[in-house]
Amino acid sequence: MKQFISVNDLITPSQPNIGAAINDLAKKALAYKANPMIDKALGANKRIGLLFLNPSLRTRLSTQVAAQNLGMEAIVFNVDKEGWALEFEEGAIMSGTTVEHIKDAAPIMGLYFDILAIRTFPGLQNRTDDYSEMYVNQFIKYAGVPVVSLESATLHPLQSFTDIITIQEDLLANPLTKKRPKVVLTWAPHVKPLPQCVANSFAEWINAWGEADFVITHPEGYALDEKFTKGATINQNQDEALADADYIYVKNWSTYHDYGKMYTNDPRWMLTKEKLALTNNAKVMHCLPVRRNVELSDEILDSPNSIVTQEAGNRVWAAQAVLAEILKTKK
Ligand code: CP
Questions:
Q1: pLDDT tens digits, residue range 253-278?
Q2: In this structure, are 144 and 166 located in the same domain?
Q3: For the chain, which terminal residue's Cβ has fewer other Cβ atoms within 10 angstroms, N or C?
Q4: In this structure, what CATH number is given to the domain that contains residue 286?
Q5: Mutate which of 56, 251, 314 for ligand 1 pocket (most atoms within 8 A of beta carbon)
Q6: Count of domains observed in the chain
Q7: Are residues 271 and 319 in the same domain?
Q8: What pLDDT, in 10s, does the model give residues 54-94?
Q9: pLDDT tens-digit map of 143-187
Q10: Are residues 302 and 197 in the same domain?
């Protein structure tokens, strides 16, 4: 694997089938969960730079732990708080607030590190800018080393890979009587407009995996980019969408078409016990952090149906499997 920006980075000449590639990598991740130190020598004398332009708890810590399990040194740099303000526009006249161009900074970081991992959030002001993924693409262009997304303007691949691992793990522990699980991505209320990246990415990965009946439910006006959702059933009636669900992925996102807006935070979209009763005793997932009793109720989060802690724990094994593949490709 040369980089990890989207699900498409799993495709290789030896494994061109994306669904099979996801399953192969998920097996490796679960093998690391069973035996975390088995590849301790793989990353010896290697270093990863974790660059944060935005806050994080899970991504930062799980990727550090994953790197250490592979024998790599991980150095965290909170660029937003501790670094020079970076300029990403080509040809910019830097007479404003930015101090250093990515064209100058990224190659230097590429000399310090064997892998660079980057978190950047969208501005939610201009869809074309955000969906161009300029920040991540400029790092890829100038760093000269493999780049891993720790969440970008439009996607969160380490989270989505984790989500599939978690579903697979749960299916192994609790087999269904039917062949394919029903997975529902439901919009949830929030107090402010959030990026679409977790929802986009979850849709992209579940569609690519191809082993679930996938339904997305959201209020009117919240349709996501079809590039990611194509293949899913869209139903704006949440109760209908939840019927017989086996896994419910709860997430808020702002509007995509009329970009970055919050049309509603209608509490009737929050998952409750009554809504869970419509499902096949569904397991409930969320990427976290979660606004309790806004996005998800205490009664759900504190119930046995919630697998959010297991899901967050699996972030380590997803990151470890991805970093290991990159290290093997680099050798
Ligand atoms: N899910 C997730 O990415 O969490 P953090 O923002 O805390 O890293």
A1: 999 999 999 999 999 999 999 999 99
A2: no
A3: C
A4: 3.40.50.1370
A5: 56
A6: 2
A7: no
A8: 999 999 999 999 999 999 999 999 999 999 999 999 999 99
A9: 999 999 999 999 999 999 999 999 999 999 999 999 999 999 999
A10: yes
What are the structure tokens assigned to 166, written together? 């978690």
**For the chain, counts of helices (H) and of strands (E):** 14, 11
* C-beta of 58 in contact with ligand 1 (< 6 A): yes
Rounded-to-integer distance, Cα 192 and Cα 196, Å: 13
State pTM to two decimals.
0.97
Is the minimum distance from the CB of 159 to ligand 1 under 6 angstroms?
A: yes
Burial of 125 (0-12, 13-18, 19+ CB in 10 A): exposed
Assess if residue 243 is contained within a domain. yes
Torsion of CA 254, 256, 258, 263, to 10 degrees: -30
Q: Verify whether ligand 1 is closer than 6 Å to residue 251 (CB atom).
A: no
Q: Are residues 291 and 225 in the same domain?
A: yes
Fill in the amino acid letter for 313: G
- The alpha-helical segments, DSSP class H, found in the chain are 18-34, 58-69, 79-82, 102-112, 127-131, 134-143, 157-173, 197-209, 226-229, 238-242, 273-276, 298-301, 308-313, 315-330
Q: What number does the ligand 1 atom closest to the CA of 59 have?
A: 8
Domain that includes residue 29, residue range: 7-155+315-330
